[in-house]
Each structure stands twice: as C-alpha cells, then as structure tokens.
Write a structure and sequence with these properties.
Layout lengths: L5 E5 L4 H12 L6 E6 L7 E4 L2 E4 L1 E2 L10 E4 L3 H13 L3 E4 L28 E3 L3 H17 L1 E10 L6 H16 L30 H14 L5 E8 L6 E9 L5 H10 L3 E3 L11 H4 L5 E8 L6 E8 L3 H16 L1
Parallel strand pairs: 1-2, 1-6, 2-5, 6-7, 7-8, 9-10, 12-13
Antiparallel strand pairs: 3-4, 9-11, 11-14, 13-14
Amino acid sequence: MNRTPHVAVVGATGAVGVEMIETLEKRNFPVGKLTLLASARSVGRRLKFKGVDHTVTELTRDSFKGIDIALFSAGGGISREFAPIAAAAGCVVVDNSSAFRMDDSVPLVVPEINPGDVKLHKGILANPNCTTAITLMALYPLHQAFGVRRVFASSYQAVSGTGAKAVEELERQVREYVAGSPVTKEVYPHQIAFNVLPHVDSFLPSGYTKEEMKMENEGRKIMHHPGFRASVTCVRVPVFRAHSVAVSAEFEKPVTLEAARAVLSKAPGLDVVDDPANKSYPMPLDVSGKYNCAVGRLRLDCALDNGLCFWVAGDQLLKGAALNAVQIAEELLR
C-alpha cells in the first residue's frame, strides 16, 4: 500500500461522506490525492479538504483507476454495483453500507476490537451498523473479561441516522407544532417531533426489524463469538445526532461493579461517564461531534445472573460510520 495513498470518497456529498472528508483531515490521514465521487446530480459541487476546494465528479465504472483506498457511503445498491469494480481495479474498499457485512469473504471491522481481521481482506472491508458499533465499544471489553452470553437492549436512535432529509423533517415538524400548524411528514411514517417510533429499518417475518437483528449477527462476527445472542428493540427518537443504547448483559463469569468499571476505564475509544449522584451520565448532546463513545449508568442487573446494566452513547456519524471507516484505512497503512 502506498504510504501517501490516493483516496476516493464515494457518496462525498452525503452526511457521512462529508464527515469522512473532515475526519481524514482532522486525523491527518496521509492523503496523497483526494477524489470525490457522487451521483450525477451532485457533480460540480465543491467541498473543502485542507483549505483547498475539491470538485465532485460522477461515479462511473472507470472511476477507480489509480485509486488506492475508496471509502464508500452511498447506500447498499451503489456498493453492491461499484465496490467489486473498485476492488478489481486494485483499490481497497471500506464500505459503510450493509451490502457486504455478513459476506464470509469480507472482514467486518471495529479497529478497537478486531484490527487483525483487516489483513484478511480480498479488496473489500465492511464497516458495521452504527448502533452495533457503539454498543460493542462498551460490550466487547466486558466480554473479554467476563464472557458475554446474551444481551437485551433498546436503542434510542437519532434522526441523522436516516439522513439529511430526516434532520430537516424534525426541524420542520418542531416549527409546525410550535406554530400550531398541521404537522407534515415525508421521511417517517409518523410524526417524529415529540414522539418516538419503535421502528428502525424494515420488519422481518419474526417481528424483529433488520436493524434489530444486526446486533446479534454483526456482533457474532466482530467479536468472533458465534454463540452470542441479542434481543433488541430499535427506537427512533427526536434527537438530531448521536445514538444511545440501554443494555442488560449476562456473562459467564460473576461481575462486580468495581471490576466492570476497571475494565471499561481502560477500554480504547471509550469514556466512563458514571456519577449519578452528580447527575452525570452519557447523553447524545455531549457525545455529538466526539470520537469516543461514553458509557455510564453502570449497575448490577437485578433480573439476570452475572448481569450488568449499562447505557452507552456515541456519535453514529463518527464512530458509527465515518471515523470507523478512516480507522480501518489507518489499519490498512500499518
């Protein structure tokens, strides 16, 4: 791999694409050359990288000649079509969609957890689901210490996880509601302002949604733990940015609060924010724009054997997407 690689961002004008460009700059990733790719309707838009304007060009089958690393964030359909083309052109793809996550030949990586899997790539690497990544930042260190068997979890997912139009929808609905006007909806099936929707992604025959099953399926693969079980309810909340997850985890070995806190305080990419007496706990407002996730509300679970409850929050556009992708690219250079 070139030490100053030619990097492409596919889906450069989307919410995650913009974060990827900013993250490359903030982390001083050694970009030799940057190419910004998007659909025809975004062609000609200019985005700044290190103070220099870069013009967005159209994604085509010929876009990947000479590119070393491509960070994809343009949806599963685009990834399925163009990631194999990029890989065939000698480019390593880090894909943010769900297209390749459960493909046995594609490593699914959270660099704080399974960095060694990066070496196993055959041209494509996958970024996990945002809620899964944020949850595992706290769960995996505990798993290493105590051996997780299963979790019960509920997510509190920000509207920016759906995209820029969902952020606009929440803003618009708040204004409409406050003005006493009829509340209009386009993105979500119900009003999201002053409401919560127990519905993220599409429903499966089991009654779970696709999003809810990602924690079990992707968690097994990332943690190399085929017996891991997760029963999850994913909920969309009227928060602009950063997802939160309430977790009850059951472990093989007995857990004490002191031992759990000691493990979490040493975990990379994680801050312990846990002082209920002073009303200190992780909140989406506080983790927005931050690289680290935060964990708090630690307590022994009163309904599970060897159980621990915790609350974890993280910026899903960063650790759940752009930051994790750039960290994978950093591992590639190592």
